[in-house]
Specification:
single chain; five-stranded antiparallel sheet; four-stranded antiparallel sheet
Length: 104
Amino acid sequence: MIEQVFSLSRGDEKAVERVVFDENVHYLHMVFGKGEGLPEHYANSNVYMTVVRGTLSIRLNDQEAHRYEGRTLLKIPAGTKMNVTNQEEDTLELIVVKAPAPKA
């Protein structure tokens, strides 16, 4: 078989899965309930964030929080301060791609 196959978790339980983490790309699958999210951090590469379902609340650098609903793709430059949370009742599911893959 030439291709590699990866499976993503299903359900509403909190998850931060490193699906593909190689020298080319970092591909992550994330699921957050209300009030859950990521610690504030700086993007260590260009980040492509797809909201699969739910509503993302995100603060970038010093701007006010913005909300993005499912079927939305964000492109966030490397070095941007990020604060990612789910402030809604519905489960938030994200696909995050870092390209190029961060070094170390």
